[in-house]
Design brief:
221 residues; TIM Barrel; 2 domains; alpha/beta; globular; homotetramer; 8 strands
């Protein structure tokens, strides 16, 4: 279970730390691995203060050097982060850049989570042999209508096509996941985990929402 | 004097902190204001540990929210940074985005340093009323041939055209500045400060190079 | 008066030719200069068959050579076009690229029409010394609420700030212009012409809408 | 055999027409299918005057409408072109945009030729089910060192990985192909055709170079 903090004010700076602490507790209670994908400027403080893995939301492929304003995979690694999202619908990459980023994160020792917006791009991403592929139809992001309910065939088709190309990659699904039940139905459809954001980050009771999802997932396994 | 750390390994993570400490010392010794422009992931730790201003190298204009992988001005501010470079030749922005970034950094309370690649773009940038305009011909960046020597007319023309449009903006110049003398000749041509990178960051004796430049500048004022 | 054909099906291929012929008639009847900004693939056939100027909607700055998929200013010129829009809100350019495009179109002999989304960017564009600046707030494009009515201060402020920087550039305004009266009120506010699109292109009676606008403009002058 | 005209002045405007006529002759003489990938502004006149297929070098995915400065697949089709390159190394596309472009060209009735810069991206592109995949390592483009000689394993590996994912797609290879022998060695390695540019376009005797390549290919089949 990856919780994407995006650039929400509710998951930025000191609030990012508070939410990460909550999610650390959820992992402890349920045994479900919880990962936070935080803003670049929060990677260092979060990595210092929580034990669950902290991931970046994006890295650039450029090697360290004269690349003002870019996010070097090495710098993300040095900050204490252990992985990164790549190609999220809100931060799309060129095909060739994405392939390079997957290779570079592997070299640097970061776990790569490549996001795909539909079945065909999920299959394409699997060809890059990242650690994780996350299927997220952007038209459902933030809607509260979970992909596992609204478009279950996207999940099952993506799993089938990814598995034709790549036997090992971990498959997550996301977009619109808002209730505990959405999480377990995602697993039922063949996903191995979920990518969730506003449902947790913007909840009045962040702990309860995350805990319910994680419990539902732990029941499944 | 702004020292741009780019994504150089010599100015990343713990080395970024060491170099910032050195530059803090240079400011103390010479009275010349020294600012470091650091990688996003280093903004928090540097701001915690040095008293000289820490700037970002880039921000995105999107408001806080569903913008995975972007660098929100608010997050940069929260990390302790006090300003940001914008539109560096290695991280160019669309005209409309740049104008929005200048406005947004103003609202958030970050000092804006807009980089321009030639005289005409420097004039255009001045129309956005940023705090600082830095003129840097990209063809000289990293060459060791200082703009103030190789193309002095770029500095004088930029100063003239910027002043026609904007009386208040602080004007820096950069690109190829590698010796102490380059710094003072930049001031002689009408610049109010310099933007320097590899000459300091990649120096065997970082302190000596920075100190010599700052001393030369302090003599000038 | 520039009519932007965008990629509307009503102004593409043979329909682009029919509409251009209509607009040629409008120019003849009213004496108001009418220019069409057509899709790249239509530049050649339109230039062959109508006498009013045909402009492109975008060019890239790359010199002729190994630049697959780009639109070279030289190729646009060779196709018979006489100018080009640049930096339209639907096709924004990086600041440095825009400045280069303005210079390159000048060298090649194309008239440059730089679009700006607000007052500050209009002032910045004027610093590049293009032939024409067109001010178009994107939030009004296609709304039917004319900039000259909904935000008259955008036009007057843009005219004032542009004139501070550049005495010669021709100033157009656009966005939401849908009635003849919008055209004359634009001129009243200090614009020297208008940039119009859907109001003409998608009209049931394209000729009538364009003719009414042109007549209103000719009455003004 | 696809000849990419890029934005070379030797293959622009009237010279594009002359070269297309020559290549039409080469096809007639050898029976090898020759396709020209021309600049957008040349699509209409070339399609009018030669019988060999004319392809675009790039299209955008946006539907027809308010998309100033974009290249609509429908407009390319209307101009008489029968296909398009996509994602050339000199005009890279975001992963999600590329997938959309492949679908859109299919709907509109244009043949899609997706270019890939290495083995992994070639495999990914095959997942989109385009008509043609062209493998072109950009580090060899324009060097005169043919991919089929300098990096034969790129061709064989790409063919193997593409065929695992997609049985039907036509596979071309390109980059550095400059002699007739390079063309046949490409076919020997499993490619079904070649993508060539400067070797033909910039040749003193364009006809001879193209004819030799086509003859060598016809001998192979």
């Amino acid at each position: 279970m990856i919780v994407n903090f995006k650039t929400y004010s509710e998951a930025s700076g000191t609030k990012a730390l508070a939410l990460s602490k909550i999610l650390e507790g959820v992992q402890r209670e349920t045994g479900i691995q919880v990962i936070v994908a935080a803003q670049t400027s929060d990677l260092f403080p979060l990595s210092q203060h929580v034990e669950i893995p902290v991931y970046a939301q994006h890295v650039d492929p450029q090697p360290q050097g004269g690349h003002t304003g870019h996010i070097a995979p090495e710098a993300v690694k040095e900050s204490g982060a252990r992985g990164t999202l790549l190609n999220h619908s809100e931060r799309r990459l060129e095909l060739a850049t994405l392939e390079e980023c997957v290779r570079r994160t592997g070299v640097v020792g970061l776990t790569s989570v490549v996001c795909a917006n539909n079945v065909a791009t999920a299959a394409a991403c699997a060809a890059f042999e990242p650690d994780i592929v996350a299927v997220e139809p952007p038209e459902l992001i933030g809607t509260g209508r979970a992909v596992s309910k609204a478009k279950p065939e996207v999940v099952t088709d993506a799993v089938a096509r990814i598995r034709d190309i790549n036997k090992k990659v971990v498959i997550l699904c996301g977009a619109g996941i808002s209730e505990a039940h959405d999480a377990s139905s995602a697993l039922n459809l063949g996903a191995q985990g979920i990518l969730v954001s506003s449902a947790v980050v913007k909840a009045t009771d962040q702990r309860k929402v995350a805990l319910d999802m994680a419990r539902e997932m732990s029941r499944f396994t």
